[in-house]
Amino acid sequence: MKKYLIVALATLALSGCISTQQEQQEQQQPQTPPPTTAPITTVPPIGTPETSGQPPVETIPQPPKLQSIDWSATVQPLVAKMLKADGVQSGSVLLLDNVKNSTNGSLQTGKITDAMHTALASNNTFTVVPASQLASAKQAMGLSADDNLVSRSKAIALARQVNAQYVLYSDASGNVKSPTLDMQLMTVQTGEIVWSGSGAVQNQQ
């Protein structure tokens, strides 16, 4: 009986030592902290007026494109018809002066006159009075070089000064943005209108 008691006490003592060693090992081991989750930061979108602090960009409307007149395309058909007019004597001298502006605004008549000179440059019907001779005739009559022919009688008087047989009298009228060009071919001797024509202007494409 005493022998069993000694064995039991020894067993309890041994188990107590093992428990004490396990507790000491657990205390010596560092405790791992629980995992932490980083806070999620929401990044605002870049470039929006609400978050960037910049005022919204305003869209500037484009101004309407202004159409320019194609005087060459406007003049050539009229000149072609005039050169085929009945009763015109081939080889005659023709006076071509600045176009009269009768529109409701400012019109660069010099461009029309230049287009008419170009259209008549290679014709075989008329010999156009040179610009230098026309300027001298205007000076002799007390007119400025860029003076527009304001009347048919004035045009005929200038044509007689340069010994021309015909006068091409031209007038732009109506709305300055889309005028109508009128032409009249007159004889210097009698003032008779042997041909007349008109046409709306052509815009550049």
From TrEMBL:
Residues 21-64 are annotated as: Disordered. The keyword Lipoprotein applies. Its main location: membrane. Residues 1-20 form the signal peptide. Residues 21-30, 38-51 have a biased composition (Low complexity). Keywords: Cell outer membrane, Cell shape, Lipoprotein, Membrane, Palmitate, Peptidoglycan synthesis, Signal. It is found in: Cell outer membrane. It holds the Pfam family LPAM_1. It is a lipid-anchor. GO terms for cellular component: periplasmic side of cell outer membrane. GO terms for molecular function: enzyme regulator activity. One of its GO terms (biological process) is peptidoglycan biosynthetic process. PANTHER family: PENICILLIN-BINDING PROTEIN ACTIVATOR LPOB (PTHR40593:SF1). NCBIfam families: lp. Belongs to the LpoB family. Regulator of peptidoglycan synthesis that is essential for the function of penicillin-binding protein 1B (PBP1b). Interacts with PBP1b. This is Penicillin-binding protein activator LpoB. It comes from Rouxiella badensis.
